[in-house]
Amino acid sequence: MTGQDRLPPAGAFAEAADPAKLSAKALDMLFPMHLRIDAAGMICHAGPTMQKLRPDQAFVGRAFLDMFELTQRRAIASMPDLLAEVGRKLRLRLRDAPRTALKGLVVPVEDGGAILNASFGISFGDALRTYPLHSGDFAPTDLTIELLYLAEANAAVTQAYRKLGLRLQGAKIAAEEQAYTDTLTGLKNRRAMDHVLARLIRSGQSFSLTHLDLDYFKQVNDSHGHAAGDFVLQHVAALMVGETREADIVARVGGDEFVLIFPRLIKRHRIEEIARRLIDRLEVPVQYDGRICRISCSMGTTLSTFYDPPRAEQMLADADRALYLSKKAGRAQHRFFDPDPVARPDEGRNAG
Fold first, then answer.
1. So which domain of life are we looking at (predicted)?
2. Within 13 A of 346's CA, how many CA atoms are on the CB side?
3. What is the number of alpha carbons within 13 Å of residue 96 lying toward its C-beta?
4. pLDDT digits (tens, 9 = 90+) for 119-175
5. What is the DSSP annotation of 240-279?
6. Average pLDDT score, the chain
7. Distance (Å, rounded) from C-alpha 348 to C-alpha 352?
8. Residue in 300, 331, 298 with CA at minimum distance from that of residue 317
């Protein structure tokens, strides 16, 4: 036993003021985790904090050794055994769960009983997580109060950091979303399209890519102004989103140019159906501020299965070639890229 562990001999306690003569209220204030045990080993009183450890059980009237297990090397099975430990630190715990470890010190009283005062010791953290404890549950001079304040401060700082982390994460997500979004239409932008294309190519799954260009959009801007043009672009964006699946990607990659990516869709008749619907719906006149805006669209599509392996730059260029053929055929058309170089016509483009 170290010098710090040495306690006065048992006789010294007898010479001191008898703690049994203190009122229960005084004992509760000084030692909120104490137990008053009579000569037969029965609990006569429990401090308020000790009672908090078992709020649904009554300590009073029960045998101390029936409720508590002492984990000393020396067996303690009776009241005389317990009194023999006067002057020594006790290790004890309740016999039923939760079995939080406690430290204790027993002091004899004149009637042959004892007062046992306990504390959580290094189990303080476990106790805070297990029981509804606060600063009022400890004597004002108890160092546990300082630990409690530190724990509360640490919890407050941790919570603040957690909230800050969530806000930063939200801001990061919002910034990334903004970086991948076309501000006018709310569609994906060119950067997002490049990201999706790279991911699809890495995954090895098949997909189709369609390049769509608005016909007669320049006339809308020239005749009705850029506000009308912006309104038409927003109308077009909403229409394309409505005509495509949730998994499909619709991106605005230029002033009046769009790219549509259809994961796991390479059936030509299905792609043709989608293209036809888009062309038909985009030819419906758009009203803006009492004026009629007329547009159409031309489209060109290529399939990832045309390539081994597919490359994003090549697919975009080939979809653009197919789009040029649609323009050349009279606009309001859709064409598939022909991977056969022999059958491929002049590849120059003069789309308007």
1. Bacteria
2. 4
3. 6
4. 887 777 778 788 888 877 887 777 666 666 666 677 778 888 888 777 777 666 566
5. HHHHS-TTSEEEE-SSSEEEEEEET---HHHHHHHHHHHH
6. 85
7. 13
8. 300
Q: What integer pLDDT is reported at residue 149 of this predicted model?
A: 64
Q: Tell me the chain's radius of gyration from C-alpha atoms.
A: 41
The CATH number of 3-141 is 3.30.450.260
Q: Could you count the other beta carbons within 10 Å of the beta carbon of residue 240? A: 23
Partners of 34 in the beta sheet?
117
Taking residue 17's Cβ as centre, other Cβ atoms within 10 Å add up to 8
Q: How far apart are CA 99 and CA 84, in angstroms?
A: 24
State both tokens at 326. 């649609």
Domain ranges of the chain: 3-141, 147-179, 190-336
CATH topology of domain 190-336: Alpha-Beta Plaits (3.30.70)
In terms of Cβ atoms closer than 10 Å to its own Cβ (0-12, 13-18, 19+), residue 269 is exposed
What is the distance between the alpha carbons of residues 6 and 352, in angstroms, rounded to a whole number?
Answer: 97
- What tokens were used for 187? 């569609």
User: For residue 163, is it left (φ>0), alpha (ψ between -120 and 50) or beta?
Assistant: alpha
Q: pLDDT band at 76, cuts 50/70/90?
A: confident
pLDDT digits (tens, 9 = 90+) for 258-316: 999 999 999 999 999 999 999 999 999 999 999 999 999 999 999 999 999 999 999 99
DSSP run (H or E) holding 318: helix 312-328
